[in-house]
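Structure, all four chains, one model.
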Amino acid sequence: MLRVPPVIVNFKAYSEAVGENALRLARVAAEVSEETGVEVGICPPHVDLRDVVREVGDEVTVLAQAVDAAEPGGRTGHVTPEMVVEAGADGTLLNHSERRMLLEDLKDVCRACINEGLLTIVCASDALAARAAGALSPHAVAVEPPELIGTGTPVSKADPEVVERSVEVVKEVSEETAVLCGAGITDGSDVRAAVELGADGVLVASGVVLADDPKEALLDLISGLE
Amino acid sequence: MLRVPPVIVNFKAYSEAVGENALRLARVAAEVSEETGVEVGICPPHVDLRDVVREVGDEVTVLAQAVDAAEPGGRTGHVTPEMVVEAGADGTLLNHSERRMLLEDLKDVCRACINEGLLTIVCASDALAARAAGALSPHAVAVEPPELIGTGTPVSKADPEVVERSVEVVKEVSEETAVLCGAGITDGSDVRAAVELGADGVLVASGVVLADDPKEALLDLISGLE
Amino acid sequence: MLRVPPVIVNFKAYSEAVGENALRLARVAAEVSEETGVEVGICPPHVDLRDVVREVGDEVTVLAQAVDAAEPGGRTGHVTPEMVVEAGADGTLLNHSERRMLLEDLKDVCRACINEGLLTIVCASDALAARAAGALSPHAVAVEPPELIGTGTPVSKADPEVVERSVEVVKEVSEETAVLCGAGITDGSDVRAAVELGADGVLVASGVVLADDPKEALLDLISGLE
Amino acid sequence: MLRVPPVIVNFKAYSEAVGENALRLARVAAEVSEETGVEVGICPPHVDLRDVVREVGDEVTVLAQAVDAAEPGGRTGHVTPEMVVEAGADGTLLNHSERRMLLEDLKDVCRACINEGLLTIVCASDALAARAAGALSPHAVAVEPPELIGTGTPVSKADPEVVERSVEVVKEVSEETAVLCGAGITDGSDVRAAVELGADGVLVASGVVLADDPKEALLDLISGLE
C-alpha cells in the first residue's frame, strides 16, 4: 500500500533545487531518511524527475509537482500520469496553490493517478476546499493557506483551526485520506503543532530548500514527529 | 428557504434567447409555471438578467448562468455575487461544462453565493465530480455528461447509472443538496426517467430554447414530473 | 467611423458603479460630455449594460468591460459580441489586466467585434504586449502597467517611457490604431502628460468612480485635454 | 546566431515518444541529420528533456514543448526558461494549440526565452494570430490550423493561403522572424508545397512519431526541402 510520508519537501522552481542542486537536495533527503528511519517525500521539477528517481528512488518517495489532465497522445507540453509512472516516480502533488486546476480536470487526473498506482496528494487552500478535494478520495489532502506560504509563519500555529477543521471535514468525506498541512512550516515545533492538531504530516518548501543547511533543517522538522 | 425548481431552463447564448427573445421565453416559463403550479427556473444571459427579473421575477426563479469568484471592487468584466443579488435574481448556476471553474474559485464563489442567499447550483460532469461539488454543500448539483449535452439523447436513459450514482454520492457528502440531471433532456419521458432514478429535477437548454413551440416543450417536460 | 473617446471610464465591479449607481454615474458622464463637447466613454458591468445604453446611449460611448470568444449558441455564462451589439452598446474593452485572454481567443474575439462594428479597445501591460495587441488592428490599444492600477500614481508621470514606446510600436504595426494609457490617472495634469507623450486619450476607473465628486473629477480630467 | 531547423518534430505526449522511445526517436533524428546534412529539431516531453540532450544534444536542436511564464522561485509544477537552459536544451515551442497561453504570459515568456538565448518558436492558429505572435519578434512563428492537426491533410495543400498570408504578415511586423507551418504534414511533397509558399520549414508530430518507420518518414520529409 502507498504510504504518505510525514514530511514532504516541494523543490518548486527554486534555483537551489534544479539540476545538480536537485540531486544534492535529493541525497540530503535520502540521508536524513536513512538516519532517522522516517520516510521522506521530495518533489523535484519536471525536468529533474528522472534523474532524481535514478539517484534516490529506492530511498525516498519521489513525487512530481503536478500532473496534467491529459492522456497519452497528441498533447503538447503536458506531463501525463503515464509519464510520471514511466519515469519511476511514486506519486504527485496536484492543485498546488501555484498550479490550481479546474475541478473537472482535477477529478480526471486524480482518478487517473490513483488508477496508475501513484500516491496522489491534492492541495487545498482551506477546510472547505479540503472537503471538496477529499471527496475525490486521494491518498492525502494538503491544506495550505496561500497567504502563509513562504512566510515562515506556520499554519499550524497561526491558524490552528484550519488544520483541525480540515482533518475533521476530510475524514467526513473520505476516512482513508491522510491530511497534511503546509505553509510557513520551518521547524520541529511547527511540525509538532501540526501533528497535535491531527495532521498526518507536513508539506514544506522554502523552509528546507532555502535553508543554510537543508539537512539540519530537515532533521529539525522530523524531530517534531516524535 | 430556497427551493430548487424541478425544471430549470438554461438560455445559454442562443440567439433565440437573447434580448426580446429572452423576455418572450421568460414569459412562456411564467405562463407554464402558473398553469401547472410547478416552479420553473430560467437562466438568461448576463446582459438580460435585469430585464428578465423585472418581467417575470415574481413568477419564476431567475438564475444567472455563472458568477465569477470576485468581490466588489477593482474587477473588470466580472459578474459578482453581489451584482446578481442587486439585479434581483434568485440564484445562479456555477461550473457549467461551458464555463468550468478552478476548484478554489468554485469553492470561494459557492460560499459567497450561499452567504448572499442565492440559490446555488453547481454543475458536474459525472458522479465523482458531483461528489466533489456536493462537498461544497450547494443547494443543488446538476450532473451533465458533456458528451450528451445538446444531443437529444437523454442522460436519464442513455446513462442511468451516472444519475443514480450521483444521487447516492452527493447525499453521502451533503444530505440537503438536491440532485438535478441534464444533457439531452427533451421530453416528459426523459424527465420521468430522471425522477425515477432519484433526481430532484432536470436542467434543460436546447430542448426548450430551440423547440418549435417552447411552451409545448416545457409543458411536456413538466408532464414527466407527475 | 468609430471614434475612440479621449476619456473612458471603466466602472469595474465597484459597488459605487452597479445598478442605480451605474445609472447615476452614466448621467454624470453624459452631462460632462454635453457641457464640454468632449466625447466620453463608459464601461458599465455586464448586468447594467442595457440599462445604461437606454439611459445615455445617445450621449456617450457605451462599452462592455469584456466580451468572450464565443459565438451565439450553446455557451453558458458568456457575453458574446452579438449580445453587446444587440444591447445597443458601441464597443468593448478586451484583455483588461483583470480579465486577461488567451492570445488565440483575443484574436478571435477582436476580429469578431471589429466585424460586428464594435469599437474594440485591447488592453496591454507594457509596450511589447501593446505591439502584439496592435498587430490585431483594433481601434485602440490601452496600455496599463498593472502595478500602477488603482494606485493614484499616474503611468504618464511614473513611467512616461512605456507610453511613448507603446505609441511608437503600436503605430509600427497598425497605423490607424489609437493608443490610450491608463493606471493611476486621477487629474487633468496626468491626462495632459499622457497626451504630450503621444497618447490619444486615457482609460480611468477608481479616479472617477471612487471620487467624492465624480463630475468634478471627470471635468478635471478633461481639462487636461486642452 | 540561432538557426531555426527546417524540420522540427514535436514528440507530444505520444507513448511512442516517451522514455526509451524518446531516446530512440532522438537517435533517429540525429542519424537523419547526419546523413542528410539538414538540421533537425526535436521536442521531447519535459521529463525526457535532459536525457535527450545528453543523448543527441550535440547533433540536433533540442527544444522544450512549452515553457511557463514563471521566474525561478516559489512556483510549483512549472518549467521555467532557466530550467530549459540548465537542462542544456536549445530552445522551446510556445503557445502550441494544445497549450495556449494568455497574451500577457506569452509576451513575458517569449521575452524571457529570447533573453536566455533560447530559440523561441511561437505557434499560431492562423495568419492574424501569426501576426500578433510575430509582433513579439520570436525566432519563428509556426502556423498550425488546429482543425488540420493530426489529420494527415497537410496545411500546405489544404489551406495554402494561410501559409502565404502568414509569411506576408509576419514579415510585416518582424522581418527576421522565420515562418514554419504545420498540421497534417506527412511527406516530402507537403514540405515542398510549404517551402514554395514561402515557409522556412515545417513542424510535424504524428507524421513522424507514429510512422511505421520514423527514419524513412523523416528522410521523406527532408527530401521535400531540396
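Chain C touches chain B at residues 10, 12-15, 18-19, 43, 45-51, 64-66, 70-80, 82-84, 86-87, 93, 96-99, 149-150, 205-206 (CB under 8 Å).
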